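Technical note accompanying the year-one report. For the benefit of new consortium partners, we illustrate the data format agreed upon in the data management plan: each record pairs a sequence with a structure-token string. No post-processing was applied to the example shown here.
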Amino acid sequence: MTTGVLRNPDFLRFLSSHVANELGANISRVALPLVAVLVLHAGPAEVGVLSSLQTAAFLVIGLPTGVWVDRMRKRRVMMASDLVKFVALGSVPVAATLDLLTIEIMFGVAVVAGVSQVFNDVADQTYLPNLVSTTQLSDGNAKLEVVRSGAFLAGPGVGGALVQLLGAPRTIVATAIGALASLVLLLSIKVPDKPPADVERGPLLRGIREGLEYVWRDRLLRGFMASSAINNLCVSGVLGLSVLFLAETVKLAPGAIGLLLMSGGIGGVLGGMSGAWLSRRLGSARATWTAILVGAPSGLLLPMTQADWRVACFAATSIMISWAAAMSNVGQTTYRQTVTPDHLLGRVNASVRFVTWGVMPLGALIGGLVAQQIGVRESLWLLMLARVTAFVPLAFSPLPRVRDFTELQANT
């Protein structure tokens, strides 16, 4: 039994816009630093700042973005974000051709692209219920998760190949074209762009507080947010140490390291592909709970990695963690979209993203500091043991006691 979401032409246009946008964004993760290194001869500190600026926007404007998106038409927000990103990224090869490119311009492009991505991400999760029926939400989110994971898996490799073939500045053209293609596909959607809810628009801080309070009042939303925060805190610490661990502790060749780091994308694709099927077989709530329970202890294999057959421990852990994360993301996103009133959905999505993504830089910092004191492998053991506790906030929520999210009512 299928939901028929792929027979919805507007959803197919939306899905295709995701392919263009996500692939371009993941190519730029490689291409922007390579432009800085190969064209501007940037040092490690400058490359580090450039990379951080691509993701810093969620911490700075994540919460107010939810308020602003709730007050605007969602598809127009995504289209405007794509247009801004197209102009910003397109300026890089133009400046390089005119011999005007500087590291300061690259920093500015990273900031603008990051801010655009924040608006796009918040509007994206808020817009899907306008395109599909409630019964198709889980399947639609699963298809979008496949695209996100596939782009994360393929993007860096495609980016590296394009840099080799075209050069770094011209590769940025490909990412700009991806943003433009996304804009055109969004423009072709036939369903009218739903206007924002006609509710009183109070001060910005009150709007932010309303989103946070809604998440806090709903026991399951609160449990999901706490569980994801614990997971992301620990996993970001592990990711920050992974290259060092594989290169210096396990002593693998660069090619093997690259293959192992890509294995997580495979798990994400599998999770997205199996998410809707498992939701139908087990129930949406049970499928989400199963993914969290199975994923919690799987990380304990990773610190056992050695430069022999046990190298499979790293790949197995990456695949399992990414599979569980994709499955859980499908369930959590579907639940939020189902129970949250339209006029609050942008703020609720932004509140959850702010907390669950905001801990990631902290996790990377903690992982590095702990590794410096006790060693890399030992810190990986600590991080993965701590990650096992990610299921605890949900053990005391309604999640383990219901089959489907439709059995739950949002607290108001």
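Partners are asked to follow this layout when depositing records. The CA atoms of residues 116 and 265 lie 24 Å apart.
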